[in-house]
User: What shape does this take?
Amino acid sequence: MNIQFVLNDQMVITANNGAGTLLDFIRYDAQLKGTKIGCREGDCGACTVLSGTLCNNQVHYKSITSCLTPLANIHGKHIVTIEGLNISGVNKVQDAMVENSGTQCGFCTPGFVVSLCGFVLNEENPGQSSAISSIDGNICRCTGYKSIERAVQTIVNDLTAVDKTNRLEWLIKNKFIPEYFESIPFQLEKIEPLLSPAGNLAIAGGTDLYVKSHDELSDMTLNFLSGHSTCDDISIQTGECKLKATTTVSELMNNTIISDAIPGWYQYMKLVSSTPIRNIATVGGNLINASPIGDITITLLALNSKITLTDIAKNQRTIHLHDFYKGYKILDKISDEIIMEVSFQLPDLHTKFNFEKVSKRTYLDIASVNTAITVQNKDQEIVQLRCSMGGVGPIPLFLASTSNFLVGKKITAAILLEAEQILQTEITPISDARGQIEYKRLLAKQLFFSHFITLFPQYVKMEELI
Ligand SMILES: Cc1cc2nc3c(=O)[nH]c(=O)nc-3n(C[C@H](O)[C@H](O)[C@H](O)COP(=O)(O)OP(=O)(O)OC[C@H]3O[C@@H](n4cnc5c(N)ncnc54)[C@H](O)[C@@H]3O)c2cc1C
Ligand code: FES
Ligand code: FES
Assistant: This one.
């Protein structure tokens, strides 16, 4: 299979194995050494590039970590490295970094500049806080973030004059991006879909697989799932939300219908990894990884999601997500089955949702304990309730007994204290790098109460639960 994409201003066709990483292609095949190798685990952002997808005649750009991206996933896309951003001279973002002393050794700088150019291209209402969020996956070890923040402020100030109706033209005229960007849609539409080989091992975003087994993967024949994703991975009809398994966390986070139904949705999703990881990490990958602390998995369990699996002979079955996890990394799944779709009912006006996550760092960290809840109530009475919790057992846990106990009960401190006793019998945390057993049991208790203090402050007060 030949993989075809536009790299900066050049059309590229390569017969390289699609399982090789984009980072290796950029540095060793294309000899573009501006993109750096740091951690190779998605944590540092030194390898950040932009990936542009053609949707409805427009190219939508997002920052991605090239160290975790299989080459096959970028077929048909526009990949922009630091070299492609200053083809016609130093650009406005680079200028701002220099003016504000936002760089010293320079190792991290291409990653920061690329992420900020992604922000410049994407953000319809650019502000300081969204600009800072766009660099949440970039780490600098020597400059100090204050001067980078000042550079960001300069960029945001410059963007106040942006012409929203002719954004691309304005960005080109004002030297944020080079002129060749205008020709990219015409180049991308010439690229035919990729006929990829169906290898035994499925890969979607690659953010779990490449961290675990980077060296083994590059020579394998993989089944690339994300290469087939389209512009519309989420459909919502009569309150039912259907996601293709290849929906990325960013797509989920930015869906306005879900955000309208679940206040706080955007902020919950922002607690998952970082912008460039969310831009490639998929829902299906999170579910199959079966990590007891998978944030998307815990969220989808509380939403009573169903998953649809298809095997190689195209046999299809749909099961509840809470029936999928049988033991530590043991799934109700035969080896060639692929998750195709995830569906759940959006909370209605009488149903509330909350998500809590405790980790060592607020952002770009996995949870010590995470938990989600949906509560349908009629005044103080609980009509339906589903609570899930991660980091407290071998699987992402649906707290069936605790949830069942609460149905039909009133939301009072006394009932919640009773429910918490049941919760403690359902969980079996172990001591590990993310905390001791006692600490996790305490977190489980506090986060469980936190759901109710957040959602029903009129019925329960924190001091009643201590
Ligand atoms: C820096 C970093 C930070 C992270 N932070 C978080 C975090 O805060 N919270 C969190 O929950 N996770 C986090 N993760 C983990 C990871 O990003 C998620 O689990 C992600 O959703 C995995 O999706 P993917 O598409 O990248 O999976 P992949 O790596 O492509 O695949 C993961 C597994 O799923 C299988 N697979 C993928 N899709 C399917 C499918 N549709 N059907 C069948 N099998 C499939 C693959 O074969 C593989 O076994 C982080 C990862 C990194 C690198
Ligand atoms: S090399 Fe660190 S995120 Fe890719
Ligand atoms: S400038 Fe040296 S790591 Fe950021």
The mean pLDDT is 95. The longest strand covers residues 369-378.
